Amino acid sequence: MSSNTAHKWRFGARPKLSSKSSILCVDEDEELLRLRKGILEDAGYAVLVATTGARALELLTDTQVSLVLSGHMVRATSGNALAAEMKRVKPEVPVVLYCGHLPDSLAHVDGFINNEESRPNFLALIAGFIRTHREYVDRTLAS
Description:
This protein is α/β, with parallel strands linked by helices. The chain is about 45% helix and about 20% strand. It contains five helices and seven strands, in the order αβαβαβββαββα. The strands form two sheets. It has a five-stranded parallel sheet with strand order 2-1-3-6-7, sandwiched between helices. Strands 4-5 form a two-stranded antiparallel sheet.
């Protein structure tokens, strides 16, 4: 992560709309969020962060997001339960769990990325989920 990225980091700052694809990262561990944010920003994405499900739902409601990348546990809830709430708000936005082991249930999420993936594989998977989301939005707008 570049030092410039680290200086721009602020939890709770108002999200800015961008022409870049926006990713909402959710995790209760602020240090992991900081690292993930830096990697994704270095790859050209606009990144919003939340350490609670309530803040994540607020950001999802108020901003255009191409992807939600959530940890398995987020302050007293699971990533799967949070995904169910998010799907009620914006069912078209893919929600992907990012953690060290495959959870027992993926009922409400669109995918899983193991946190041991290499950076190139991680970024390729992210790009694939966003591409699928864009294709869905384009098809919906065309109909």
